[in-house]
Amino acid sequence: MIITTARKPSSKTRTFCKHLGRFTGWEYVTRGKTSLEELSDEQFLLVGEYKGNPGSLSFFINGISVLSMYVSVSKDKEIHSGKTPVIEGDSPLSVAFRKVTGLKTGEVGERFIRIKDRIEFIDNRVSYIVLKLISVRGEGIA
Question: What CA–CA distance (Å, rounded) separates 85 from 37?
Answer without folding.
Answer: 29
